[in-house]
Amino acid sequence: MNPKITKRLETKRLVLRQFTKNDAEPMFRNWASDPQVTKFLTWHAHESLDTSKSVIDNWIESYQPPGNYVWAIEPKELGEPIGCIDASRVDERTQSATIGYCIGKSWWGRGFTAEALQEVIRFLFEEACMNCVNASHDPRNPNSGKVMRKCGMRYEGTWRAGGVNNQGICDESWYSILKSEFEKKASAFKREYDKKASPKQQPLESCVRRGFLDPVWEEMYQKASAVQHGRNISDYVEAGGVAAAVLGASGRIYTGVCVDTCCTLGICAERNAIFHMLTEGEQTIRRVLAIMPDGHIGPPCGACRELMVQLMPHAYKDIEIMIDDNERRTVTLGELTPEWWIS
User: How does DSSP assign 183-244, residue by residue?
Assistant: First the structure.
């Protein structure tokens, strides 16, 4: 390990930096005083600005000696923090760190947390020389798990009744990523990027740091995740458990969610996204991504594949489909469905 100070980091949209005394008011206002933000956390919502001031004073004192990490998450366009991310437990024996994070609900669903986590993971591996980065979440807060999976972390298991948060004794779902896995994913992305890169594309380094996905797959994931909200519509209908994004030939991304009914009237998220595309006047599919109820990415069912084949009988084999979010593995529909009744 190579302990570092909490240094200033930058991503495309964010600045991650040390807290200052001036951050107490926006901390209290933007996230720390909101019980919805702290619902599954281990600390209670701040009842007064004085509490936020006290917490920040402690963080400022912790920046020395090196090896204590806590960053303010600040969107560049806003100029004030909206949340925090820290490596709260550093174990020198295993060269590992446990990460925690939270942001204000006004910024939920915009990919800021994942963008911050990706950069912190990179820093801990490349600069602090960690060997393992891990994190956990309450299974009742699945969106936190989506953030971890998006950043390449693997699900390790759930420790039943293993923790305590503001809901009481709780299960903890644990995720981790090893330095070797980080380097492997970064190397694989670089090879793929080198094949497809054009002078107009953004620098490779920024893509690698944002999570081993090329920017289009990443945008598709973010847009599908933004509309995924499983809920009961009535006693007979559920919707939003699965969300999908479809990339058209124009470069536009279309989203849809599943609708499940007690009979045969339901529809898959992928087909809903395709119908969205057709409604907007497009008919050529380039890429498909679907997020399952547990947050993992999965392949389309037979009915969705059949629709894509019938829409593009002479070109369906070229449609790219993301089928594994841990390995960031994609296949073509031709590979997924090599033989079909349409020749």
Answer: HHHHHHHHHHHHHH--TTSPPHHHHHHTTSS-HHHHHHHHHHHHH---EE-SSSEEEEEEEE
**What pLDDT is attached to residue 94?**
95
Tokens 């009481």: give the residue.
168
Residue 283 CA from chain centroid, whole number: 29
**Which has the closest alpha carbon to 239: 260, 224, 263?**
260
**Would you put residue 295 in left (φ > 0), alpha (ψ -120 to 50) or beta?**
left
Lowest mean pLDDT, pick from 65-74, 92-101, 151-160, 332-341? 332-341
What's the confidence (pLDDT) of residue 73?
A: 98
Number of Cβ within a 10 Å radius of residue 162: 13
State how far the Cα of 209 lies from the Cα of 16, in Å rounded to an integer.
14
Q: Look at the alpha carbons of 22, 26, 27, 29 in this order and tell me if their dihedral is positive or negative.
A: positive
Cβ–Cβ < 8 Å for 148, 112: no
Q: Report CA dihedral (280, 285, 291, 293) to the nearest 10 degrees.
A: 70
Out of 120-124, 159-163, 189-193, which region has the weakest mean confidence (pLDDT)? 189-193
- Rg of the Cα atoms in the chain: 21
* Mean of pLDDT values over 281-300: 91
CA 210 to each of CA 41, 157, 198, 203: distance values in angstroms, whole numbers, following the listed order: 25, 25, 19, 11
Two tokens at 110?
A: 């915009």
- Report the relative pairing of strands 320-324 and 285-291 from DSSP bridges: parallel
Q: Which residues lie below 8 Å from residue 55, measured CB to CB, with a gap of 6+?
A: 27, 32, 46
Question: Taking Cα atoms as reference points, which of 177, 180, 215, 172 lies closest to residue 196?
Answer: 215
**Is pLDDT above 90 for 270?**
yes
pLDDT at 307 over 80: yes
Contacts of 207 (CB under 8 A, 6+ apart): 189, 193, 213, 214, 215
State yes or no: pLDDT of 54 exceeds 70. Answer: yes
Do you find a cis peptide bond into 139, omega within 30 degrees of 0?
Answer: no
Please, which residues bridge with residue 257 across strands? 243
